[in-house]
């Protein structure tokens, strides 16, 4: 296939937003007759990097491949098709994928028919596609985040016609329903409620790789939740880059608060959601979380920085005072609520004073968990054009100081649970010790516990917490 025949991503198109509403497409996915048995006697290995949206996409990709009769295997050595489902949020995530693509190439020597596919957020980047075209000729298929539903046709082209195939749409297109799914969990599941992001925080590549914000309908979401409930799933996590914006594009009354209530009324045991942007966290949402016992008291609320000027340059739309107000409301209204956050250090020109204010907000909130990152410039974002006067050693030092603080609070928050009895959703025997079970509390804390009973994944049991560590709790079933 000639280069002209590839469908390549365009940053210009990805940056654009139109008022046009996305359609809900229920019949777009189809399997052409000649592709139906493509996977007979063939296996695939899928590796997913990055966020939960990618994990959930991985389940769709696996679902499509199994519909085409491929068999999933657990090591790349056994596979006829290797798929890397990639993340673009920071450069180190990309370097990992490119390294992996390089090292897996050796497998083509022993298996010349082996196919490599790359998809996910990296596939949406112009720069990455140029690198793949130039330096990774062994990658046979590239598809993006907006055309997963085209996988049957694209695979056929790459596999049967033996043509290098690159198809990446830059415009997000519609909300596509009724794609196959292979759930990787047995009692916990992801449920997409919306796709894309329109916040355009100045450091973030996601609005370009995942397109404009578009919501699924309440009915389609509830139908999926009920199906999961019927299949014995106990916990669902509602997914969106910013769930607080849910329904705005559809002009739905009540937005995410209404959806949360409707999902809670299904009676499914545990509901979680991620991610919430502090800017549009409404009082109605706080009230809904407080009202229903099956909405878990655990909020991931990325603060990013504790300095108002920095928040402005980041394009976050809230001040530290706004953040504290939302945090305080949740803390006051939602009983025994746990909080996690995301923080970026070393944003261009961040001063020591500004960094100190980030430490101050950590002292104020005393997060149960914090994901901390050094700023990574992303091509095409406004921040990538900013001159930066902060040396990498300074950024690393700030990250270390920040982590020391956040780890301290993580441990301190866990210690509060010593002596308490928590409800734990059982995942199964612990990875390290088969005599011990592990699971998560309502506040999303990992508990390893002993019991004299035989438990199954999906059971909810009461565990007395005996000892707190920084990242886990130890206990015994009562
Ligand atoms: N550099 C560093 N961290 C980033 N994040 C997003 N973009 C970048 C970037 N360019 C972080 C934010 C976000 C989390 C998912 O990743 O903290 O909340
Ligand atoms: Fe990125 Fe901001 Fe959207 Fe989150 S809300 S995905 S940080 S642009």
Automatic annotation (TrEMBL):
A single MF term (Gene Ontology): tRNA-2-methylthio-N(6)-dimethylallyladenosine(37) synthase activity
Textual note on the cofactor: Binds 2 [4Fe-4S] clusters. One cluster is coordinated with 3 cysteines and an exchangeable S-adenosyl-L-methionine.
Encoding gene (name): miaB
Protein name, per record: tRNA-2-methylthio-N(6)-dimethylallyladenosine synthase
Class of enzymatic activity (EC top level): transferase
CDD domains cross-referenced by the UniProt entry: Radical_SAM (cd01335)
Residue ranges constituting the Radical SAM core domain according to the UniProt record: 183-412
Cofactor(s) required, per the database record: [4Fe-4S] cluster
